[in-house]
Amino acid sequence: MGRYVLRRLLQLIPVFIGTTFIIYALIWALPGDPFAGRCGDRPCPPAYIAEMTEKYNLNDPVIVQYFKYLGQILTGDFGETFAGIPVNTLVADAYPITLRLAVVALAFAALIGVGAGILTGLRGRGFADNLVLVSTLFLISLPVFVTGFILQVVLGTELGIITPSVSSQATWGELIVPGFVLGSTSMAYVARLTRTSLMENKRADYVRTAVAKGLEPKRVVGVHLLRNSLIPVITFLGTELGALMGGAIVTEGIFNIRGIGGLVYKAILTKEGTTVVGIVTLLVLVYLLMNLLVDMLYAVLDPRIRYD
Amino acid sequence: MRKRRLVAWVAAPLAVGLFASACGGGGGAEAGDGIVSVNHTEPENPLVPSNTTETGGGNVLKAMFTGLVDYDEKTTEPYNAVAESIDTTDNKVFKIKLKPGWTFHDGTPVTSNSFVKAWNYAAYGPNGQSATSFFEHIQGYKDVNPGGEDGEGPPPTTKEMSGLKVVDELNFEVTLDAPFATFPVMLGYTAFSPLPESFYADPKAFEEKPVGNGPFKWDSRQPNAFIKLVKYDQYAGKNKPQINGIEFRIYNELETAYQDLVSGNLDFVDQLPPSAMVGDKWKTDLQERGESKPILSNNALQVPLYDPKYQDPKVRQALSMAIDRKQITSTVFQNTYEPATGWVVADAIPGYQPGGCGEFCEFNPEKAKQLLTEANFQGPITITSNSDGGHKEWIEAICGQFKNNLGVDCVFNPVPTFSEFLKMHKENAHNGPFRFGWLGDYPAAETFLGKVYRTGASSNYMRYDSPEFNEAMNRADQAPTEEEANKLYLEAEKILAKDMPSIPLWNQKASVGWSERLEGATVTFDRNLNFETVKLKS
């Protein structure tokens, strides 16, 4: 097991270099001068462009630029934006907020999704099953910006229960509604996944054996059935956390949350290469670690899965 | 069994590590009492007055700095702020005397040197300041910034402009290359702000915590979230602020800012979202708490005069006369724009006579068609614009009118980004009219004409070259008084009407809204809340 973890951690290095290089090359090789449009409606003075080009090593070939950048990243310095703000500061401000938002979303997805899935998966056809199937279909088909905007206007502007935007502190309480919006689609998927998985395993041999042994139904479901059925759900939730962190652009935009999603979106539009590469690097790390975590949880859930 | 335990022990710290960082962080200011919150965008450049030409940073700096002159909140008429007097006999040599008692936020006094040194710094080429071109009228600018159009020029020979002379603590003298009557009006623009000595000692520290001499001083900032300023108690200007501070809150979506405004979570929005403009919805949402006012911003279609197809002025005039501006401003823009009657936004400039474009900006499809036949113009027309700022609708509306009124084919040619669009300007790559937006920097006609239509001017992407127009501009620049200058600028505009290098379209109005907490909210010509006069209801 220890060797397995070590091997997985070593795999990080080529993936890390590969992704950051691709992102770096894509961002800085975009057509157009990244500094040309930065002086309002008038062209920027040549001295300004020359200074900025110098500052970001844009006169070097991309590969040299990249290694200069990599060297900088390895010392823990993610560089500066065009406005002279360290990317470290931006990320330090935004990352906790996005993580909190993703956790709230994931909690909704896990609790309500798994709950609804178990409820319908065990009972089988009936009113509850139909209700869950229809409501999850509804949630899946509604785009996030529609859900977000409706909740914002109804709960915020009309009823005054929440404020329409999240303040710069982004407390847990403020993140409940945005977290629900963000997690709504995954919640629906989790419910369906749990339901299907449970229904399939209900007829499995080991469940029949457990029942035949005369075990209590609670133990059959809780220990034998659920543990096996949750493997695909855990896989989904694990990768979803990574997706939620990077993909919160729309939700963060609607509720004005100062998180990673909005930051990277704006950075791409304004061609702030340093910010984009820095954030993507961190997202890659999150994905890799979450995948490792999920793989290890498999072994906890199902002892038959071994890594040595 | 043992193996499973091990997994759990490895997994647990990983999970804790990931989630622990979720706590803490954040921080920042709560909009407490006496603080007015306004919607805002993240500054694009470090916060130095001479390096900020866009509104995201400009609005913050405007609240933090006061220049030699300032503009009246109602009439936008310039008045002396830090300057006691600006005297000239020939509009070429200006003797500037400062009022005593002005201080920077760090307590040091504002002296002649604060201005002269700041201007020299801003103009000096190697410093790479984005507002350098504002100093080009001053004698000796070419010596400190010989860069030329593409930065290929020789290195500067000196670091100081010969046209700036410090007489004593409170007096200095500015000599221009040529007489220029509008010069004192320009001096209220942020690029001309004074800088404290501490700036030169450590520019990096200054960028993090700018020190100005204006009504508000720096408090705190969380990049991408907010910038907070607080009242400066020793402010020496005419209007002492009545509020305790400003929070510039950065929004991703205008729509969210508007929702916040309606529910009382934000005090001022400098631009209403399109959804609020539909059917004047904002008037029901906000009651009396909104205003629509002309600002120094206009739009035009520049025409590439290097393209043989567009060389006959009749073609350009015909295109202009075929556009029903009134219809587009009311349907596409929900009346947030006014049809243009010239190249200068006359409504926002004190004492300026509108109508410089004359009959050529009036909708007249018959005459347009006739002119086009005379010029023997064969379509098709392509209209180019960057598509990252949402310009599709109005360009397609214009195209539709060209098709209906002139019977020529017209298509919208979108280029993905603004910087690619700028590249096309630079390379003379246009093959038809293209979008042009201009934001005036100070309320004077010159800002709409000089930098755009003079031969070789920095935004003359049409490559318009008319000695007659240059001559007229020189005469206007050198006029002895502001009124006479305005008359002469109008003359220059008439020459533009004759040549039609660009087709004026419409002037923007600021549609703003404010919360119930504000009292006496007014809007400046550059679409800001007037922070110096606004009050909070008790």
What does this protein structure show overall?
The complex is a heterodimer of chains A (308) and B (538). By secondary structure, chain A is mainly α. Helices cover 74% and strands 0% of the residues of chain A. Chain A contains twelve helices and no strands. In chain A, helix 6 packs parallel to helix 10 (249-255). The N and C termini of chain A lie close together (6 Å). In chain B, the strands form six sheets. In chain B, strands 11, 12, 13, 16 and 17 form a five-stranded antiparallel β-sheet that branches. Chain B has a four-stranded mixed β-sheet with strand order 1-10-9-8, with helices on one face. The longest helix of chain B has 19 residues, at 2-20. Classes of the chains: A mainly alpha (308), B alpha+beta (538). Chains A and B meet through helix 2, helix 4, helix 6, helix 10 and helix 11 of A and helix 1, helix 8, helix 15 and strand 16 of B.
Defining key terms:
heterodimer, A: 308 residues, MetI-like fold, 2 domains, 12 helices, flat, B: 538 residues, alpha+beta, five-stranded antiparallel β-sheet, four-stranded mixed β-sheet, 18 helices, disordered N terminus, MetI-like (chain A), BPD_transp_1_N (chain A), transmembrane (chain A), MetI-like_sf (chain A)
